[in-house]
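Entry 14. Structure prediction run on the chain below.
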Amino acid sequence: MFSKRLSLTFCAAAIAFLTMTSAACKRPAPESSAPAIEFQTDNFDLDGIGWMSEQADENGVDLNVSGLCALDSNVAFLFGGVGVAAGTIRSFLLRTIDGGKSWHEVMSPVLGSELTHVAFSDHQHGWALALWSVEGPGTVLLFGSTDGGKTWRQLTEVQRSQGHALPDGFPLSMTFTSALNGEIELAYEGESTSIDDTREEIATLASDDGGVTWSMVRRETRKRLPVETPAAHHDCGFDSTDWELHTRAANDSITVRRFDREQDHWRVMTLPLHFQYKRGRVLSSP
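Output returned:
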């Protein structure tokens, strides 16, 4: 009897130990949260595109997110345009310094434009490319930051190449390898021999003074590739922290994920895309 009781006790202890071990080894589920979003409080003048104001006041506005740029485990940026069904009203640049728990607008909006690219060469030096988007691509403005994206100032208007049927080139990419050296790729409509052979001309501009002046260093013509919008955008900070931006068509929210190496799991933040708009302001509460 004593031997049987001892055996049962041993089995119960073993089961408890295995259960505890399994729970300890199991990777935690992603942690989800709803971040706070704060836009600039200054009224924004829709001079020239005021016909969109009534639609915005009545129906609200939507964020059209172009991408995500991460610096480290705490600091990252979301960027794109604020618009209505009729078109883009202004740009936006949101910055988080607490790993995505809250986001604050840090750059003065650019009228009728969206930010297409944001790039950093290090923790301090960053650039943001704004493209006029009302009724087709237009003026391209470049902004710069030297304090980690806390403040921004306009550096220059990026000039496009001459001699194209459609002179307004569309930005394809922007990279900076140092605080001085960077490149921008612009795509132009090229001559096509058939519907199935649509060509585009790619002009590469280079700067060696931090983005103040640009000159063309390469030009090539290639077949236009189909435009594919990835379901997820991945970026890695300078400290190797992984961030992901997930967008879904016809949805009123996006998902931002950051991998927490200490906890060994993904922290998930769901951000709304639709906001109320009153008297030239995007209201911070969706």
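Confidence is low (pLDDT under 50) at residues 1-29.
Filed with the rest of this week's runs.
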